[in-house]
Design brief:
two-stranded antiparallel ribbon; Lambda Exonuclease, Chain A
Amino acid sequence: MVALVLKHENYFSADAAREYMSASLYKSFLDCEARAMAGLAGTYCPEPTQALLVGGYADAHFSGEMELFREQHPEIYTRSGGLRAEYQQADEIIARIERDPLAMMMLDGERQKIVTGEMNGVLFRGKLDVLLGARQCEAVAQAYPAMDELLFASGAIVDLKIVRDFEPLYKAEEGRQGFITYWRYDLQMAIYQRLVGGSLPCYILAATKEKVPDIGLFLLPQSLLDAAMEIYLPGLKRVAAVWKELAEPERCEKCDHCKQTKVLTCGVCEEYW
């Protein structure tokens, strides 16, 4: 029986991470089990990247948590007390989003909603950027007839992403991919959809960090969400065993954690010749 009741105050706590899997934690395990476990144990705590902080800054603005974000991240200010250049750019990104009527309609729902559920016997948690209700979906469809998938929808899930640009990215052994599949946002949204229940339409509302910010609204086809679950969900049994310390974590030998903890046992092999 789960003792921890999730709230905004404890959602990102160590206790929550021990009792509930999440999309971000699952993706971390898929990348490197050893690094994910070290993160849970508190032995690997990398500094937040600038990219993450800029995205968090935008999220905090639209979720109404900017005051808390500023308190938790004093590094966004210069010594003179002004915002650093990256966050001045983030303000421009925010302003660009706010100038777009459709973008603002897609953000006009219940924000930062916490949802929980079970998948394959594993408890999951999720924190949705925006959950639109049926009336809000209908209003969008009436204002934008091309979005007829929302006309009779009981709700929709919207996730805000701040990305470098919309150009394809290269992943070793997998080739060039769009940013949604590269960062496994399809898996994240598929998990959210399962936790909410049903097959609610899922959207990524994205803005870029280019000198002139671009914006885009991306509907994730149900086929893409289903495919993500088919590809990644079979690994959940293994991940859950490692997470619950029933199996030893494997190392990727490529991430910063593995580089920091590597122990030499022999010379390099001929693949480096």
